[in-house]
């Protein structure tokens, strides 16, 4: 089995993050936000093609939840997974190279934006079939349980997945077998262009999950500290051996569903109301208010992130293309 | 290898080395469970019930509920969980009651099991085995009787095998579990009670077998149609035609070398396939022969397939829908002229 060519890890966090964990959350969110905005430019410049789904507005979930996991835990994600991958430590250059279709991409150019994989970090991919990742998460947790590994599989999906049969089947099976799965629903209120109230008879998604006999509760998904705290609680419950938990992260995407979406179905005022809850602005303001952040340190943080992004763009651009002769590789496992 | 029958198996007293297809499958499961602690079995009614077709009878008692797991009626979840467990280092054997039910798990089989290795750039492998029953002949009508092996054989990333003999039923699970790729193993419902010899010869996952030699016409078949093809060959021999019977055994990859070598000797081809004719595996075999051995043929290839209807209930209608010995004999005679 091969691993992504670029195995560089995140730059070491500045020392002040060890003093205030909020700085790591803030920095993680800014990293994702600026990365996604850079992806828009790269998409417009036709450097990135295909479907691309951005998580601008939903960064608190990525940093709060994924950041709370241990390295041994597993992550199963969806097609809106740039933020999850970055928060998990997948190198930014490998993510970008993947979207550029390069051999140095984290899926060797075979996955693109929707299918980022990094098995060395137990990041089991962006799954682009809504609900399709849930059974896999149950199976990963089953394997860990059978092998006696005390780890958790975090499974991220959206509110649209809750309407799929695989949601019901997977929650039932995980609860029945008391498997260590953290089901995390990023409820951004829209299944592509269909609003929550047009897709669910019962819009209280945590209530639905609770009916399978697992702890389930809603979380302010626009607050990374609330997300991290809820995740820690859920992880402690799961690690105690009592079975899965479900967190409904109430969040919102500020941008359209994908780069193809003209966003005709949302009221501008609604989008503006949610933007008032911007997770980056909220945490930044909170930290400024209590003296945890000043203008200069904010500027330094943003500059460092931008520097990382530009270095990642350059590295991705320099990456080689997979030779066409290798088109049919990896259809079947290759001898290692 | 001596015949070992489960204490709980229904009264079967066969001589050593001889067992039923069902027992052969059970023995292969038992051997795998004994030999590799990563192996576990899951599916609907595989434990307390003993398996819908009694293949797993007695395994729960021997190996316990952690390794012989009854699942809810959730084909998508338990097949997907098999994929996840395979990714997580286990060697799951998932049983689906019938190929018709497998359609509820088609998303997991196609979009995950068959694609994850490629889509991850080779980082992932899915060493999963899925066993399922296929085929008609028991008056179970149109939602329990279809033969969709050909559909699955269309999909790159999967390996498809169809044991047609007791020896293959005994010998195919071990190489399937040793494969790093997802393997679908199709068991024809009409074969479970068949009896045969087993031996220690290892079974390869990708090689066809010549079940009967002959020089006048090649009958290519697989799975539940092997007995039909062999009976047709007997009938043809009485009429002075020596038919060679090739059992594909593996439907993906296809061992076309064995098929082509046979056709180059006999110069005539009849494909016998319980699937529907249009877009069938029979079509694939005929096309490959036409592409690669066209000038060796003395007659157009013939296909004997199921009638293009959902399989009906009434015995005479079901019989009429499936390839029969007489159909194969008639097709072979047409090629000989």
Q: Identify the CATH class of chain A.
A: Alpha Beta
Give the N-terminus to C-terminus distance of chain B in angstroms: 45 Å
Query: Please, how many domains of chain B?
Result: 2
Mean of pLDDT of chain A: 94
Task: State the total count of DSSP E strands of chain A.
Answer: 8
Estimate the helix proportion of chain A, in percent: 40-55%
Rg calc of chain B: 20 Å
GO molecular function (chain B): magnesium ion binding; oxidoreductase activity
Organism (chain B): Actinomycetospora cinnamomea
Pfam family, one (chain B): Transket_pyr
Keywords (chain B): Oxidoreductase, Pyruvate, Thiamine pyrophosphate
What does this structure look like?
The complex is a heterodimer of chains A (336) and B (337). Chain A is of the alpha/beta class. Chain A has helices spanning 16-19, 21-44, 59-66, 82-88, 92-99, 133-146, 165-176, 196-199, 205-210, 224-242, 268-275, 279-289, 295-318; strands at residues 74-78, 123-127, 153-158, 181-187, 190-191, 194-195, 216-220, 245-250. In chain A, the strands form 2 sheets. A 6-stranded parallel beta sheet of chain A has the order 2-1-3-4-8-7, with helices on both faces. The N and C termini of chain A lie close together (6 Å). By secondary structure, chain B is of the alpha/beta class. Chain B contains 14 helices and 14 strands. Chain B has a 7-stranded mixed beta sheet, sandwiched between helices. Chain B has a 5-stranded mixed beta sheet with strand order 9-11-10-13-14, sandwiched between helices. Chain B starts with 17 loop residues before the first strand and ends with a helix. The relative contact order of chain B is 0.12.
